[in-house]
Amino acid sequence: MIPTLRRTLRTPQGIAVGIGLLVVALVAVFGELVFGDAATVRTIGERQAPASLAHPFGTDDLGRDLLARVLVATRLSVLLTLGATAMSVAGGVLLGVVAAVLPRTPRRLVAAFIDMLLSFPWLLLALFFSVIWGATATGAMLAVGFAGVPVFARLVNTLAASVASADYVHAARMVGSSPLRTAARHVLPNIVPPLVVNTATHASVTLLSFAALSFLGLGVQAPEYDWGRLLNEGSQRIYLAPMAAIGPGIAIVLTGVVFALLGELLSERRSGGRAGRAQRPAAAPPRQDPPSLDAVVDVAALRIAFRGPGGELVERVHGVDLHVGEGEVVGIVGESGSGKSVTAMAIAGLLGPDALVTSERVAFRGIDMTRAVGAADRRTLGLEQAMIFQDPQSSLNPALSVGLQLREVSETHARTPRRVAARRAVEMLRLVRIPEPERRLRGLPHELSGGMRQRVMIAMGLMGRPRLIVADEPTTALDVTVQRQVLRALRDAQRSTGAAILLISHDIALVSGFCDRVVVMRHGVVVEELDARRLHEARHPYTRGLIACVPDLTTDRSRPLPVLDTADEPALLEETRA
Amino acid sequence: MSALEFRGVRVTYGHGRSAQLAVDGVDLTVRSGTTHGLVGESGSGKSTLARVAVGLAAARSGTVTLDGADITGRSAAARAARRRVQMVFQDPLAALDPRMPVGLSVAEGLLATGQRLSRTDREARVHALLDRVHVDPRRAGELPATFSGGQRQRITIARALAADPAVLIADEITSALDVSVQGVVLNLLRELRQDLSLTMLFISHNLAVVRYVSDEVTVMRAGRVVEHGPTEDVLAAPDDDYTQELLRSVPIMGQPLDLEDA
What is the DSSP string of A507-526? Predict the structure, then answer.
C-alpha cells in the first residue's frame, strides 16, 4: 500500500495535487495572519481601484486589497466545504449502511426514500434548507451538507449491497455474526476506497455549491466573506475592474480542480495505477529458416512478457516451440499461470498492446504473425482461423441476433452475398447439432444455453474455411454431459473441414481423450510433448504428477492422493499476484 | 452423533407465475460420521439445498433437521442449531474478506461457538486451526491476497472448523482450484474426517472427486433426487439413465472419448 502511494505521488499529477493541497492548506491556516491587515485596512483614496502592481486584483469599494481578501477568504470557503462534505458523507454512510443491513421490507422502504430525495435537484434542497436555517454561513453549510446526503446514501447503499452479497458476508452470517457487527467488520472497510474517491470529487462540487449560494446572497453574510461573496461583489463592477470578479473565480476554480484531481488520483491508485504501455520489439529478430508451409502453426522461441503493476516486465512465456500440422488435433495442458492461454492468443494474433512478444517465428500457414498483418492476410486469417473462448456468456454479442453474428464472418471476409451466407449459417448450425436452426438464427444469444453458445461459436468458425480452430478451455464452464456435446461438435467440425485444432485445457484426461498429441506446459515452458495414446510413457515428473494427482473412477479410495511436491509453490503465488 | 436430514424440501425462486422450482421435494440423510456426496449439474438444485441448510436460502416447504432439531426458520433455537452446520464455498477468494487478515477471518468462525474467549485463547485457537489445515500460523496477520488459491481454500476450511460444526458442507470446493491443488485439499478433507470423525455433505459436479471422498452418493437432476445409495454400488451399477450418462461423460485418462451418442 505505502509503496504504491509513494509511486502515485511521484507522478506529475501526484506532484501537482500534493503542491495544490499544500498551498490551499497553508493559505487557509496562515492567510489571515499574514494578509489579515491588508484585507481589512480601508484606504478611501484607493477605492474601487482597478488591477495594478500594488493591488493585483484591485480594491473594493472601501479600498481594501482584493487579493488579500481572496486569500483570507480561503479559510472560510475551505472550512465550509469540508464541513458540508463531512456532513454529506456521514449522513450518507449512516443511511446507506442502515439501508443495506435491514431486513427486506424496511430496506426497500429506505432505498425508495433515498431515491425520492435524489430526484430533487440539490439547489432546490439547499434553498429549502436555507429558508429553514436562515441565510447564514452555518445555514448554508447545513443546507449544502444535507443536500449531499442522498447522493452518498445511494452510493453507499449500492456499494454495501454488492459487498453484502459476497460469500464472506454469507460466511459471517453462518457463524451468527449480527448485522451490525457484519456492517462494521466487513461492509464498511470494503466500501471505504470508492467512498474516499467520491468524497474528494464531491468536495469540489460542494465548493462550487457554496460559491453559488453566496453569490446568490444566501450564503455567507457581510461582514464575513467567502469566495462566492467576493465574486458577487466583484461581478457588479465586472466591466470596470474585471479582476475583482476574476480573482475569486480563479481561487474557486484552482481549489476545485485540486479536489477533483485528488479524486481522480485516488481512483487511479485504486485501480492499480496507470499501466505502463509495453513496447513492441524494436526490430524483428532474424529468422533462422523459412516457416514450413505444411504447418498450420509454426512457433519458435516464443516469449511473451507483460508490464507488472510496478511497471517492471514480467515474462510469462519463456521460449515456447510449437508445431501444429494440417488437420492435427493438439492439446496444450497446464495449470493456471502456465502460459497456455497466452500462447494460444499469440498464435491467434489476439494479444493486446500491453503484451511484449518476441520470437524467432510465429507463423500461421506461412503468414508472419509477428508483424503488422496486411489487409489481404487479415482476410485470410479471418476466414481460416476460428477461436472459441472459455466464457460462453461473453463471446457472443448480446445485442445482435445469432444469425447476424454468424453471417458477419463470411460477409466481411469473403464478401459472400447475404442469402448465401444465411443458407450456410443454417447448414453449420445443423452440423453442430443445434435443433431448429432457422428459429435459432433469428433469436438473440441469451435464448441459448451455455453449451449451445459454444456450439454456435464453433459454427461461426465454420462459416469461413477454417484451417485452425483454437479452443481455449471451451468446456470448463460447462457440465460434463454438455461438455461431451461441445466436444462432439468440435470433432464433427474437424472431420468435415479437415481443420487443425488447438485445444487448451487444464484437464489432462480430457485433452488426452480428444487430441492426437499433448503438449504439457508449466511456468511458461513446454515440459513435455506426448502422443495422447501413450500418456503412461510420460517421462517428466511434472507430467507424471499431473496424471497421478487427478482422481478418476478407479482411484484407490483408501489412500491419500499423490501430491505434486510443488503444490504450495511460491511460483503459483507469484502468478496469482501477476 | 449427528445426522443432517432433509425431508420433502422444496425451494422456489421468484414470485407468482415466474416462480422457478429449484428444489422439488428432496429427501436426503447425511449419516453421522460419514461423507455424503451430492452430484448434479448446474441448475440441478444441489447448491440451493446446501444454502437452505445453512440459512442462506429459505425452503418453501419441508424440514431440515440436525439430530432431530429443526434448523430452518427464524426462531432463536433454529438459528443456534443452524450454526452447527457450516459451509465452505466454491471460490476461496470471494469467501475471504480482502481487507481482513486471515487470522481474524478464522477467529470469526469462533463466534458460532458462543464462547467468550480471551484474546490469548482466541489467538491460540486460530494458531491451532491454521496449523490443522497446514497453513503457517505465523502468517495469520496477512491478507488473503498474499496466499495461493489452495491455501485460501484451506483457510476457509479452518474458519468453518472454528465454528466447531457438527456437519460440514463443502460446495464445489475444488472446482475453482488447479488439479495439483485439488489433490491437497481432498487429502486434507480425508485427514480431517479421520481425525475429527467429521460428518460432511460434499457437493460436486465431478463424479471422480465425489467417488473419492464419499461413502454414500445422491444424484440430483432438475431439483429432484434421481438416484442414491452407497457410492460403490451407484457408480458400479447405476440404475438411472441420467447417472449412466454422467458416468459416460467423465473423461478417462489416456482413453479416447466416446462422443458417438452425445
Answer: -HHHHHHH-SEEEEEETTEE
